[in-house]
């Protein structure tokens, strides 16, 4: 049994045929357009745009990954150097003769002069053998240095025992004698009881070669060590170029602030010359500092994000018009 709809609903059936004909003609028109020269050119432009954006996204991911690897490599070297300083300070603190003299002093078996006479020559010998250790102050629980050797540490920089003190720690850097210095604090224990603190003054000359190692950073790249003081960044060494001493968009200060919170990552911004830059940042393990590796937009993979947003919109618009 079959029903001829064209006879039962001649008007509606005619409309359906007309509509189908219009759809078919629209499809044929698009096919004719894309097989014409303008259509082929537009299709080619769309394809090239999509490929270029895809290549950029891939290249950008590769650059970010490589940058994070470079940041980690730099961090390991800096933390290694700071760890060596801590270990050297700990060895000085544990030297047998000064420790024995301190124990006698605490037990009232010897006076302060005897303590100093036994300790100072040993400390001075250790300082002279070190390339970066400058001075030491052995501080009492009552406050104040009871033994000093080498370069005298400013009184306002001396480290005194605190509740919960344990492993060696780093304070600074700070400007002293026209150079950057740090102090490594080493708690002095008698069994489980803290009886003093050794403050060991170090030069940062050993870190300078690491900061000045620009291998893999291009012509304008650099490594930055510093901390964030609110919205102001404090950088410990001079920048690679005088023209890059600023932080116009707060990129470095923001990254250093994140390292204090234990965060690592990559960020994009602009340098003082207005050119795009990319930075990778991470906290150090041996000090409360942040490390940043900054590379300038010299390669095609690091471009102005606004440019690529416009490119993406243009390609999307082309695809929309082409369909």
Task: Summarize this entry quickly.
The protein has 323 residues and is an alpha+beta fold. It is built from 8 helices and 10 strands. Helix 2 crosses helix 3.
Please outline the major beta sheet: 5 strands, antiparallel
Structural class: alpha+beta
Globular, elongated, flat, extended or rod-shaped: what is the shape?
A: elongated
Side by side, the strands of the main sheet go 2-1-5-4-3
What integer is the average pLDDT?
A: 77
Number of strands: 10
> Secondary-structure element order, as H and E?
HHHHHEEEEEHEEHEEEH
Q: In terms of per-residue confidence, which ranges show pLDDT below 50 for 5 or more consecutive residues? A: 1-6, 11-19, 303-323
Describe the protein's topology.
Layout: H1 5-8, H2 10-35, H3 37-93, H4 96-106, H5 112-129, E1 133-140, E2 145-150, E3 169-176, E4 179-190, E5 193-203, H6 208-211, E6 222-229, E7 232-235, H7 251-260, E8 265-270, E9 276-283, E10 290-296, H8 305-322
Antiparallel strand pairs: 1-2, 1-5, 3-4, 4-5, 6-7, 6-10, 8-9, 9-10
Describe this structure as you would to a colleague.
The protein is α+β, with helices and mostly antiparallel strands and 323 residues long. Helix content is 46%, strand content 24%. It contains 8 helices and 10 strands. It has helices at 5-8, 10-35, 37-93, 96-106, 112-129, 208-211, 251-260, 305-322; strands at 133-140, 145-150, 169-176, 179-190, 193-203, 222-229, 232-235, 265-270, 276-283, 290-296. Strands 2-1-5-4-3 form a 5-stranded antiparallel beta sheet, with helices on one face. A 5-stranded antiparallel beta sheet has the order 7-6-10-9-8. Strand 1 and strand 2 form a beta hairpin. Helix 2 packs across helix 3, helix 3 packs antiparallel against helix 8 (305-322) and helix 4 (96-106) packs antiparallel against helix 5 (112-129). The longest helix has 57 residues, at 37-93. The model is unreliable at 1-6, 11-19 and 303-323 (pLDDT under 50).
């Amino acid at each position: 049994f079959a029903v001829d709809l064209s006879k039962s609903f001649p008007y509606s059936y005619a409309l359906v045929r007309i509509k189908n004909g219009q759809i078919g003609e629209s499809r044929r028109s698009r096919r004719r357009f894309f097989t014409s020269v303008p259509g082929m050119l537009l299709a080619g432009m769309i394809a090239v745009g999509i490929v270029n954006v895809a290549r950029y996204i891939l290249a950008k991911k590769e650059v970010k990954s490589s940058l994070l690897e470079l940041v980690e490599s730099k961090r390991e070297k800096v933390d290694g150097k700071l760890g060596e300083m801590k270990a050297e300070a700990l060895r000085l603190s544990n030297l047998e003769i000064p420790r024995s003299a301190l124990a006698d002093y605490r037990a009232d078996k010897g006076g302060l002069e005897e303590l100093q006479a036994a300790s100072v020559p040993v400390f001075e010998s250790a300082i002279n053998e070190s390339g970066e250790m400058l001075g030491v102050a052995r501080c009492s629980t009552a406050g104040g240095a009871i033994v000093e050797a080498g370069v005298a540490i400013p009184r306002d920089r001396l480290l005194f025992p605190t509740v919960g003190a344990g492993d060696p720690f780093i304070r600074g850097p700070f400007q002293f004698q026209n150079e950057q210095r740090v102090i490594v604090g080493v708690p002095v224990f008698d069994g489980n009881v803290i009886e003093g603190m050794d403050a060991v003054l170090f030069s940062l000359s050993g870190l300078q070669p690491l900061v000045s190692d620009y291998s893999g950073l291009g012509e304008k790249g650099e490594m930055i060590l510093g901390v964030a003081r609110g919205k102001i960044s404090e950088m410990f060494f001079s920048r690679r170029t005088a023209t890059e001493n600023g932080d116009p968009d707060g990129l470095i200060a923001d990254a250093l602030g994140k390292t204090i919170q234990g965060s690592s990552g990559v960020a994009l911004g602009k340098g003082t010359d207005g050119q795009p830059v990319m930075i990778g940042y991470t906290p150090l393990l041996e000090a409360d500092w942040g490390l940043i590796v900054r590379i300038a937009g010299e390669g095609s993979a690091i471009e102005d994000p606004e440019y690529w947003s416009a490119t993406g919109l243009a390609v999307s618009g082309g695809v929309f018009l082409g369909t």
